[in-house]
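> run fold IS1 family transposase
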Amino acid sequence: MFEVHIKINCPHCQSSKIVKNGKKKNGAQNLLCRACGKQFQPVYQYKGADPGVKQTILRLLERNNGIRDIEQILGISRNCVLKTLLDQGNEIQIKPWFKHYKSVQIDEVWSYVGRRKKGKYWLLYAYCPESDEILAYVCGSRSAKTVRALMKKLQGIEIEEFCTDHWKAFAQVLPEEKHKIGKAYTKNIEGVNTCIRARNRRFVRKTTCFSKKKENHLAALNIMFNYRNNHKAKHHTF
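> ok
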């Protein structure tokens, strides 16, 4: 007779420093990673509890797969997909990379939340074409209040100029001496709008795909913008 040794790496950090750590109530062996301190099982009775499956859910969400699509592809429950969306999305914070920006473009894109009859739910975001980076975003009504909320998120960084279209709420809030108005100054962010519509079906015009709850919508935006910023930084493609 001979023994077969199977090497197991941590699904969270890929470390090989794994030790046994008791058993679950169902009798399944529990393992502990000494590198990151997280526990896991070598085999999961329910696929949705597997950290590897959760990473796959995140990858699919980043690539514009819908909740029901992921449910069918992976053979897991819809609640598991939604929980992963919220858990992963709520951990993400979109923050500017630098303390100084020469030029920042601001624009708005609409979508729906809850149901279409309630009207449009606006995404307002700041984009720097030099670093190809989404600096910050807010969601709400198409009003000066939403512009102020975005400017609050940009506090603490120095911006030499803001470029927007002719929407009057921008002129009400942005400092006049730094404000450049006109479509000629927002060509870059208009291109990003097109990418957003391609990467997130919630923003496709006349879409029937939208979040039922605002928290799901915001978590999806966090995942999308975080993926875009990180992917741009590594590969300079979107």
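Residues 103 and 161 are 5 Å apart (CA to CA).
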